[in-house]
Write a structure and sequence with these properties.
- This protein has one domain (11-196, 222-421): MFS general substrate transporter like domains (Growth Hormone, Chain: A).
- It is 77% helix and 1% strand.
- The protein is built from 18 helices and two strands.
- The two termini are 24 Å apart.
């Protein structure tokens, strides 16, 4: 179905308007995910907690996020991105404000729980929206662009946040982040629509002269069972569990304390290393999506990402790296390796009917957050096992040998990812 030049311009404007508003909420998802790494010492001091307890506090976000991924896919496929993202941003905003005002550890945990609950639906809603508003041949690139932009939140939660904390308290930061999420929720409800048809436009497929994909013909529960029972959807789950889950656990919590404890860096200097990792992750997410679309293949990019991740963890364990270019290079390599995970969403979506794209994406995404939820406290637990009792202003200080134990655990996760990557089904960038 052809449209006039005016209609095409109007469609493009509305499509990108929907995209940018949803990406705004997605930036906040990454900010909330990574910020505890920079304020780790503040949290340990404020609430007088151990490394394992700190890991559990940070991972509360991941616990509920993981549990909510399949429901998030159902919400995206039934209610649509507009309502699911609006509701999620409202809950996340309230949780961030509660976290910032928390008088004790229990209240802070509840705030972190609400943040995780709220943001858990935003990514899947955004990816579902992208699947409806953009052509299939563009999906890899749009997914990469989405992940790169979302990672601006990670970058803001590293070096820039460390600089900001020189002038404001960690509590003020999280209250302010909550207010931003509430504003984005209101704008999403006002401006976002689930499909081009909701604004009087033909679907993207109809604009290309193709028949629209068939609508759902059965109850969502039967669709969900079909998705969970489809073997081709699961390898992406385990790739994300091992590669991206371990990166998020490290960059979001333990990467800054490692540089502080082992190399005696101040928080601002230490956060530069996780910033580099997250910049590498953002750029590689965009590049991996583009490369996959250009090659017309998904599998080689996913396998390469898993293999490179394992090599990066081994390098951190075995090489004599130091503060400076060698440390920055290895942190950056971790991020670059994990960026290939973006292709797992396209690979899973293309193995299943378009009507259940949200559920397919949600299943793959669950692996990522399950990996981070397991790794954050597990990393802290292995640190505590060999801790020699050193304290500095009430904060536990760990040695490099302690951190190597956690890095070996991260390497094991990467091995799991590589085994799964070898079982990814090639789709040649089209729906099977």
């Amino acid at each position: 179905m052809s449209m006039s030049a005016t209609e095409q311009a109007r469609f493009s404007s509305r499509r990108w308007g929907v995209f940018w508003l949803l990406v705004g909420s997605y930036v906040m998802v990454y900010f909330h995910r990574m910020a505890p790494g920079v304020v780790a010492s503040d949290l340990m001091q404020t609430f007088a907690i151990s490394g394992a307890a700190l890991g559990s506090l940070a991972a509360t976000y991941y616990y509920i996020y993981t549990a909510m991924q399949i429901p998030a896919g159902v919400l995206a496929d039934t209610l649509g991105p507009r309502l699911s993202v609006t509701g999620g941003a409202l809950v996340a905003g309230g949780g961030s404000i509660l976290f910032g005002l928390a008088p004790d550890f229990a209240t802070a945990s509840w705030g972190r729980f609400l943040v995780g609950l709220g943001v858990s639906v935003i990514f899947v809603g955004l990816m579902k929206s992208n699947a409806v508003w953009f052509a299939e041949r563009q999906y890899g690139r749009i997914s990469g662009l989405t992940l790169m932009l979302g990672n601006l939140g990670s970058i803001l939660a590293a070096g820039p946040l460390a600089l900001l904390l020189a002038g404001v308290s960690w509590r003020q930061v999280f209250v302010g982040a909550g207010i931003v999420s509430l504003v984005l929720a209101a704008l999403t409800l006002w401006q976002v629509r689930n499909r081009p048809e909701d604004l009087g436009f033909p679907s993207v497929r109809e604009q290309e002269g193709l028949a629209p994909h068939p609508a759902r013909r059965q109850h969502w529960l039967r669709d969900l069972r079909a998705v969970l029972g489809h073997r081709a959807a699961w390898p992406g789950f385990w790739v994300n569990f091992g590669v991206t889950g371990s990166l998020f656990a490290f960059a979001g919590l333990w990467g800054v304390p490692l540089m502080r404890d082992v190399f005696d860096l101040e928080r601002t200097s230490a956060s530069l290393y996780t910033t580099i990792a997250l910049v590498g992750f953002a750029i590689a997410s965009l590049a991996a999506g583009w490369l996959s679309d250009r090659l017309g293949r998904r599998r080689p990019v996913i396998i390469g990402a898993a293999a490179l991740s394992g090599l990066a963890w081994l390098a951190l364990i075995l090489l004599p790296w130091q503060v400076g270019w060698s440390g920055l290079s290895l942190y950056g390599l971790l991020g670059v390796a994990a960026g290939g995970f973006v292709v797992t969403y396209a690979a899973a979506k293309e193995c299943l009917p378009p009507a259940v794209a949200g559920m397919a994406i949600a299943l793959v995404n669950t692996g990522l957050f399950l990996g981070a939820a397991v790794m954050q406290p597990a990393f802290g637990w292995v640190l505590d096992l060999t801790w020699d009792g050193t304290l500095r202003e009430g904060v536990r200080i760990y040695a490099m040998d302690d951190y190597r134990n956690g890095l070996w655990l991260s390497f094991a996760f990467a091995v799991i990812a590589l085994i799964a990557a070898l079982r990814v089904r090639e789709t040649h960038c089209r729906h099977l």
